[in-house]
Amino acid sequence: MPIIVKDYQWSETDEKMFVQVPLKGVKQSKADIFCTEEFVKVSFPPFLFEALLFAPIDDEKSTATIRDGSVTFNLLKKEPVMWSQLLSIHSDDKSFVLKKKQEAIEYAQKKSEDIAKRKSSAKEENKKYSLKEMMKLEEADRDRIEQIKVSERNRAMDEFTRWKEEKKVEAELEKMQLLEENKVKKLEENKENESCKISEIFVDDNSDVVDGCRIIELQEDPPLQKANDATEKPMAAVNHDLKQEVDKKKSKVKRQGAGPRQRGKISVNFTPRVFPTPQRESKAVEEDEWLQKQADARKQHAIDDPDLAQHEKDPAWLKDKGGQLFASGDYMAAINAFNLAIRIQPRMPILFLNRAACHLKLRNLYKCAEDCSTSLDLMVPKVAANAKGRLKAHLRRAAAFCDLELYVEALQDYEAALKIEPKNEKLIEDADKIRTVIQSSTG
Amino acid sequence: MEKPQIISHMEKSVNYTLYDCKWIPRSAKFVTIGSHPRGTGALHVYEISHRDLIQLKVYETPTSLKCGTFAASSLQSRHLATGDFKGQLYVWDLENGKPVYQCDAHPEIINAIDGVGGMGVGEGAPELVTGSRDGAVKVWDVRQRDAPVACMEPEDGEDRRDCWTVAFGDAYNSEERCVCAGYDNGDVKMFDLRNMSVKWETNIKNGVCSVEFDRKDISMNKLVASSLEGKFRVFDVRTHNSKTGFASLEEKAHKSTVWLVKHLPQNRDIFMTTGGSGSLSLWKYDYPVKRVKVEDGVKTGVAGSLQYLQNATLSTQPVCGMDWSPDKLGLAVCVAFDQALRVIIVTKLNRI
Known about the structure:
Chain A has helices at 94-192, 224-246, 284-297, 315-328, 331-344, 349-361, 365-378, 387-403, 407-420, 425-442; strands at residues 3-4, 9-12, 16-22, 32-35, 39-44, 47-52, 57-67, 70-77, 196-201, 216-220, 264-267.
């Protein structure tokens, strides 16, 4: 409970009210002053001074100073009337006082809210203003640049129009000049028709086209018979061209037209383009097809043969086993292994290829050719990925055909193999050998 | 604002597909080459006057046209040579729209055409070169009918790659000529027409959209080849090393296909590249301190450096045709696949 301070002093004039509240030793900074129109309070714990005033004061113009250990209020009265007492009449009525206090507090609160609002709105205004100013500046800058650009453009266009006019004038002048000269020359010609000699006239080889490639020299030569001879033949053909040529002043030598060059051909070859290929040439579709096929082929068929162990049903193992047997020379057993593998994975081309090799060794040539054909059919989207396999298939089948003396078919297989690998020299040699055999047998 | 500025001065929308545009020399006119949706070709001649483009002439040709050049015709006649979608080579007289020369050059579309020896520039016979999708590059002389003067193609049965671009160069006297061709697998081949041989070839990994020498009528100096994947390469072709070929420097631009490289006629070290994103970039090549270095008695070229001068985005579609005006510095016309042709001015080029 704060201690109410009662030993304050007050005095007044018509307009002002002075109240002095001693701070009783409490630090000045701890004093909290609250003042509204009708209510004044100083709280300096543990002391408290509050007073409900006799009449309202103008709290905006009133001041309070903390000095010399006391708070001095300098209150400006709203009505310049002598009060003769500080506290209001109702000060004894505690509830009244309380109510007034509440009102005062609310009033003060509202006021401070108002002030805050006004401050913030003022800030907003300032911000907007500064933004507008900045925008104006930037706008001005941009306009300036635009102006410069437009003026440059105008200048360039004016220059251009001027240049065009100049050209036009020049062209006109030239035309006038040419007309003048033409007239003059015509007169001269008519006068000197007999005495003018056309000495050297070079005519171009392919001269059906009248396209100004001549040199004409006009010379004045005393002997007239020569003139007559010379003028007779070419005169007719050249006459109308002469008019054109003669238009130039005096004897200007026109540029000798160069004859067209000799025909020639240059062979070109292009750098091969492996990857990336342009979209229109890409084999992406086929490669995807091939991958899909491979994936399908790997699907295995289950076989229930009680004699076989689990690992013996694995086609990869079987393939390796077959390879081992082939290497050791046991071709029948190898074939068995491959047969079993094919039963499980019927669409793996490599199994057919290997079985074909076995058949070739056993001289089952038809079976070998069959197996090669099957494997080729399985490697149908012809992509780089299965090139090696196809090559092997073609070569094995060719070998089988050779042994069967079906040389034409063998040659076909060699050609196919060469398409896959055109640079392989052994292939080229073998193909040539077969060709000679065919020719010697048919020839 | 000291850099050159690329200013789009005029823009015009048309109702046919534009493939190429060329200035008519010695005039303020240009011709656009394109095709109508109905499969016929379009040749429109425009003139620039004050603020407007005036359409002077409109011609329709039997098949869609792809490319054209004035470079092989004389200054008096100014005939336009074009290649079309059926592989035919026509030379048109633009005064009356009639063909002066016609031949079946290739069985497939002619992708690129170039000319040399006309326009009062250079010496020697005026010739045209065409590159086609059938992989052949053929050189034509208008005075010879029906058969090319030189033919560069693979043997029968060999792989064929589309030829996407051709360019003449090294035509410094009446005998020397060089043709450079770029293909869709990245091959760049240079053919010597005097010796009828392949002078040099290389592969720049991505399809070559455009090759150009910096000047046709001087001894070979620089060659720029632009390609897919936003790259282009500048070769210094003055010095040839038998082992390493030509020195080159590679640059990335546009973040999309670099469709064209066009050198400024008035300054051979400045060129513009056009991109598939509809942008134009202006570049300057700076020569190195020493252009040739000698190692073990063998000379090799040294590539210089590129300066990126300016960039402008004019369109959203690839800029497929561009031509600098040979008469006015900085004036150019370009066409894009958004069926719009634009006249642009590049300022301050005389101060670089």
